[in-house]
Amino acid sequence: MKGKLRKKIHLSKLYSFSRTHSSSTREHSQLGQKGYTRVVYCNDPENPEVDKLSYRDNYVSTTKYNVLNFIPKSLFEQFRRVANIYFLVVALVSFSPLAPYSAPSILVPLVVVVGATMVKEAIEDWRRRKQDIEANNRKVKVYDGHTFHETRWKKLRVGDLVRVEKDEFFPADLVLLSSSYEDGICYVETMNLDGETNLKVKQSLEVTSSLHDEKSFRNFKAVIKCEDPNDNLYTFIGSLYYDGSEYPLSLQQLLLRDSKLRNTEYVYGVAVFTGHDTKVMKNATDPPSKRSKIEKRMDKIIFTLLGILVLISFVGSIFFSIETKEDLGGGRYKRWYLRPDTPIVYFDPRRASLAAFFHFLTDLMLYGYLIPISLYVSIEIVKVDTILSDKTGTLTCNSMDFVKCSIVGTVYGRGVTEVEQAIAKRKRHQQPQELADTSPDLEEHKDDATSSKMPIKGFNFRDERLMNGHWVKEPHSEIIQQFFLTLAICHTAIPRCEYRDRSYELLHVLEFSSLRKRMSVIVRNEEGQLVLHCKGADSVMFERLSKDGQMFVAETKNHIRKFAEAGLRTMVVAYREIGEEEYRTWKVEFFEAKTSVTADRETLVDAAAEKIERDLILLGATAVEDKLQKGVPDCINKLALAGIKIWVLTGDKLETAVNIGRSLQVSCNLLREGMKQIVITLDKADLTDLQKEEDKEADCEGFSGWQFFESRSHGDLENFFLDLATDCVSVICCRSSPKQKALVTKLVKRRTGRTTLAIGDGANDVGMLQEAEVGVGISGVEGMQVVIFLCITLAIMSSDFAIAEFRFWSRLLLVHGHWCYRLNLYDESIFYLSFLLCTCEIMTDGELHICYFFYKNLAYGFTLFWFEAYSSFSGQPAYNDWYMSFYNVFFTSLPVIALGVFDRDVSAELCLKYPILHQEGVQNMLFSWPRILGWMLYGIYSSIIIFFFSTSSIYHQAFRRDGRVAGFEVLGVLLYSCVVWTVNCQILVCSNYITWIQHFFIWGSIASWYVFLVIYGSLPPMASTTAYKVLVEVCAPSPLYWFTILIVVVCALLPYFSYKVFWVNFFPMYHNLIQSTELRRGENLDSQSELRTKPGV
Question: Does pLDDT of 361 surpass 80?
């Protein structure tokens, strides 16, 4: 039955499809010129000309690395970081006698940190490669001269004939030859390319539409000449040379790779673009090497630390040179213990300048602990200023629900939309006000209208006055019937074999377009009457009504306005009867217009359609809800309150984008009343006029509004566009190809200098996700569907974060983003945690962490400098080699991890309640240069307190019970103990919320220093050297040791504590204000509770 039905279907006879026929236009005269040189030999692999062309195969790769370039490219990525370059140089020099410590102590941490990062990148790239392997190894049927056999996508070549079946993806860019419909019609879903869910109609040339079996292809040989590979998804120019004739090809014959065949059993096509020459791959961008603004600032900070390192090394070498020159006096060596009389030049007073140079190199290694080895941030979500979001599947649910309608001036439909619920919530009403009449007799049936019945996808209409045959009891029941009859007939849905009460002969379909804004069908009913059914936008429909057909215009317009306020997409429905003579006259004129081969063919066809679409009789209007995903309005509202600009980049038509904008306007309160709605295309004159208007109105109301930008590639208009767009509250770019999405993202990122975040769910969003500083992939419901698993995975694999739905982003950004900015660890630090025992630092993403690392490294490193100054700049380190190796591994690492995991300045609820907290990151309040330099100076101050208090406390008096003074080994332990106590107790002063786990890590880290000292000191002197029983026999029994530590810790931490108290009380930041506000509120609640519990109250 289905086969017989398809043989009877000749959709090309209708205007909807006949208008897709290619015509010889002047565009095809460009073939053979530059940009139009591609020649494809169809089904002719033996042709010797094929080998000369050397077109790309169909293998695709989206990975960043391959086997050959992984090592050099990945190493380049790692050593773009200044700190890594420094440690590489130090590691190489550490093998010389100049090194103050052993080479493994610096080389092993560097290898582990760099190697761990390379392993992580390799794992991520391997996941991309697995997706490429899955795509390249998909099966497709290819004609081999006799029959169609299955082969892998990657083996497909230009010119191959392929058969694609229903619900399969197209393996390459194909020219459609024929389909299961006799006239070559097929339906294509392009959601992966442009985000649109509606099906596109494609049609083959009539000359090839008869090719339906293997026998018919045996003698098929043809040549296609067309444009060269390019990234334009909406144009295609070519010609088919077959049987000695030339047939022009257009976009209607092109089936794009990664689009899907729908509602068509099969199609035959010939591959014209394969692999990276396909339009979708031309729209793809190479995986970028992202460096966040924090990471770039980190480079500047590292340069600053390097400057400090070079400065103190230079100062040390100068003083060393002076001391060395004075060593030789009166024929005797003052510092005889340095053995300057040996041939080694390091302490030779006769070559003091050369010795000073070598000492300078030694100091560069000695003070290397000032530089953190892995303190870098890869991705930042805490400074996002602009969000660029896809629409379809990201903001919306990809479904349309018919919920309301207006017929004969009466509203039907009791459904309540999300927008109405949002309006009611804002107005604090218990129930949203319905648009339908609320007379008492209707209210009593309200429960029946919303009865628990299984919902039908796309149909959310509930009204007992029309359903279950009750419409016949309504006044004007004939018009109600005509209204739904128009909806049933006036569409381009796929014809199916069904039993019908009535049959209609479909004569013409006048298809919808952005210019016409309406669609019409002409049918002949069983009585032989000719009827035109029309539906379209109210802006073009009301002006086409007859004088007798305007009975309910005022009521309908009022209902349309209310529908629009509720975020619904509306269409006006009308009809008219046509006389036989009028139809015959029009048919001749229309046929002449559609068969013309002039450049203005479409204009002639639209003009002919205008003549028949007149004198309409109004029936009513429909209201369809394009639902936003759950929680999207609330999420966008919070993001807007956080001061984040929101751009929507979509491949949808302008009308669809406008309706989504209206939904956001009402449900999210993102756009307020009185704002201007600006619709522009990339026309320089239009943009200039808008800028002039902006200048005129800047004084009175500024330039607020929302902009719909039809994306095109015009470099000279970038400044015009961006200047206008950045003055708007929100921007929606429609008809954007994947590459244009990436270009707009790049434009905003480069010109504004602010942090951009892109969010999307499909393969068409990959370029945008990779271009933005932060890319977020959405999995959602579609992620569970096998049929589009590839595109969803591509979006996720190309992103930096992956979430299930858009609504989760508000919590990720406003809660975890704020915590992350304050002090949290980035996810990569968990990866590095497994290498904690070997690394010198742990990777962090919190500004407090970064500043704290500078503080503790400077506090530790400068004690080495002060000791060298006291030891005549001899290059002697104050500490044992193992003390220095374990400083950042055991004794100071765990408390900062606990700080990042458990410390919270405000709770998650307060972060969502006060989105303004996000501005702390955008305005860079906690990571400004004054704050960074302040922490550095604080670290230097702490080192001064630690060193001079420690040395002064033991310099002039006995340290041991037997009266002996402290030696070098005792001073090293005392200094190191003061450093460990001070930097760990600093965590307590920094913390906002302290748990028992933080106490455990802080005091446990301090205790681990003493446990290590006992175990290491118990080894033989040859192994433990200066640590031999120094704690058990010397330091621990001495009260002076413990008293010195107490005084040093208090004096070192007191300035920061005082500064914090002063700043919170006189110059509070957002989180300080929120803390104090919530604290006062809590105290008020407690006092009220106490009053309630008192007797008599």
Answer: yes
- pLDDT band at residue 615 under the 50/70/90 scheme: very high
Cα–Cα distance between 779 and 805 in angstroms, integer?
7
- Judge if 972 and 1022 occupy the same domain: yes
Task: Among 142-156, 552-566, 669-683, 883-897, name the one with the lowest average pLDDT.
Answer: 669-683
**Cα distances (Å, whole numbers) of residue 425 to 398, 428, 480, 666:** 25, 5, 34, 12
Structural domain boundaries enclosing 670: 386-391+629-682+703-708+718-805
Tell me: pLDDT of 938 over 50: yes
Note the pLDDT of residue 336: 60
**Mean local confidence (pLDDT), 947-972:** 82
Q: How is residue 155 annotated by DSSP?
A: G
| pLDDT the model gives residue 430 | 42
Task: Specify whether 277 is located in the same domain as 217.
Answer: yes
Q: Are residues 474 and 575 in the same domain?
A: yes
Q: Tell me the C-alpha distance between 780 and 803, whole Å.
A: 8
In terms of domains, do 943 and 963 share one? yes
Domain at 205, CATH number? 2.70.150.10
Task: Indicate whether 517 pLDDT > 90.
Answer: no
List, as residue ranges, the binding site: 390-392, 512, 535, 569, 650-652, 735, 741, 761, 764-765
Alpha carbon distances (Å) from 213 to 5, 46, 188, 932, 1036:
19, 22, 22, 74, 95
CATH at residue 581: 3.40.1110.10
Summarize the annotated binding site for ATP as residue ranges: 390-392, 512, 535, 569, 650-652, 735, 741, 764-765
**Which residues belong to the annotated binding site for Mg(2+)?**
390, 392, 761, 765
Model pLDDT, residue 342 = 61
**27, part of any domain:** no
> What are the DSSP E strand ranges found in 238-337?
238-242, 245-249, 254-255, 260-262, 266-273, 328-329, 332-333
Residue that terminates a domain, selected from 283, 304, 319: 283
Are 115 and 183 contained in the same domain?
Answer: no
pLDDT band at 151 (very low <50, low <70, confident <90, very high): very high
Q: What is the pLDDT of residue 307?
A: 86
What does the block give as tokens for 854?
């500078």
Residues 6+ apart with CB under 8 A from 965: 954, 957, 958, 959
791 and 752 housed in the same domain: yes
Do residues 754 and 643 touch, judged by C-beta distance below 8 A? Answer: no
Q: Report the percent of the chain where pLDDT is more than 90.
A: 18
Query: Is the model's pLDDT at 167 over the cut of 80?
Result: yes
Domain boundary among 260, 283, 306: 283
Where does 887-967 have alpha helices with state H?
894-902, 908-913, 919-922, 929-955
> Residue 913 falls within a domain, yes or no?
no
Q: For 995-1080, where are the E strands, in sequence order? A: none
Across 105-109, 238-242, 483-487, 940-944, the highest mean pLDDT is recorded for 940-944
Task: Tell me the catalytic residues.
Answer: 390
Cα four-point dihedral sign 107, 108, 113, 118: positive
Same domain, 647 and 592: no
258 and 233: one domain?
A: yes
Residue 1087: φ, ψ to 5°: -65, -35
Gap between the Cα atoms of 466 and 442, Å rounded? 12
Distances, alpha carbon 465 to alpha carbons 445, 474, 890, in Å: 9, 7, 76
Strand order from edge to edge, sheet including 238-242:
38-42, 222-226, 238-242, 245-249
Rounded to an integer, what distance in angstroms lies between the CA atom of residue 119 and that of residue 679? 48
At 668, which CATH number? 3.40.50.1000
